[in-house]
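Mods, move this if it's the wrong board.
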Amino acid sequence: MRRVIFNQKGGVGKSTITCNLAAISAHQGLRTLVVDLDPQGNASSYLLGGSAAQREGTLADFFDQMLSFRFYKEPVTGFIHQSPFERLDVMPASRALDELEGKLESRYKIYKLREALDELSEVYDAVYLDTPPALNFYTRSALIAADSCLIPFDCDDFSRRALYDLLNATQEIQEDHNGGLRVEGIVVNQYNPRANVLRLSVEELENDALPVLKPYIGSSVKIKESHERSMPLIHLAPRHKITTQYAELFAGLAR
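Not the wrong board. Structure tokens:
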């Protein structure tokens, strides 16, 4: 299963959702890979520590070799790094992805990520793709490579209105490039049931018959601590309420 976590709005928790679901996947015995397509590299830092962007063999290096003629190309496994967590690996991002984007798009390398993940189909049971906050080359590459899409939703009005554009963009990729792609659901993030505005915003999505997933993910300072310590919640605080919500969400997706 390949899941892409996609939203054009920043700050909705894409990397947090990606890394915590992937960490639970690995913790439950699945060989799991996180592909970080966001030049900011938040998922890479979360799972590999602050030095992730300085490592050799990043996703930018993988794409860069696609632009030059070489008799020998490094296999995709050469760009994968082990995390400190068993069965959880990462293809880390770097800022160089920004510089490569225009060249990759003009040379129509949009299917290279899917081809690479096809090569890894016998190596990993689950792949999670974290995307930048834009519908750009890297996001399209991820949607083309994925089986399903999770859309984070952080309960504000801007996100609700933008959500329909996201669904249309996903449908367009499905029709033009990836007939097997499906929207697996909307992940409600940073939810506070006591806030009427947030509650009503989620109710409107459900009234529109959109695939809103449960449980909703709440907010906690423990999430910030897990970022600072580069330790997903299943390892930092396995009995915390947010960890439990992620575990329930993962279980629902696995059914």
